[in-house]
Design a protein that fits this description.
- The chain is mainly alpha-helical.
- The chain has four helices and no strands.
- The radius of gyration is 13 Å and the shape is globular.
- The structure holds heme C (HEC).
- The site of heme C has 23 residues, from helix 3.
Length: about 100
Amino acid sequence: MFAADPARYFEKKVAPILARRCLSCHNNAMKDGGISFLDRDSVLKGGSHGPAIVPGKPELSYLLRAIRYKEDVKMPPGIPLPAKEVEALTEWIRRGAVWGKIGSQ
Ligand code: HEC
């Protein structure tokens, strides 16, 4: 049902995860690792590990390896995301990582 409206998929399924679990360290004031989830370009560009997200290509997206705890960078630090949230982020990237409203923006 979200196929026709990818921005809605972002707002309903993805933004709440990023806002709750990631935004406190990855925002425009505090760009940990060089990325802010309020700034899509910074996420595409990524930090020292290269692009955090490659739209349409989950296997090339460092962010997904980080949230699967497969890399030295493990996100979020301390407690891994529930599998359902990992799936939602993977699906979002597979569909092209379309952005929408997040946080107070
Ligand atoms: C408590 C603060 C904190 C939270 C919460 C957090 N991060 Fe991070 N993140 C960091 C720090 C610090 C780094 C840099 C780590 C390093 O380079 O060793 C980082 C690095 C990253 C990187 C790698 C960037 C690069 O190329 O080096 C990605 C991707 C990332 N975070 C994604 C996420 C995601 C997705 C979430 C939420 C699920 C999240 N982070 C939650 C602090 C946080």
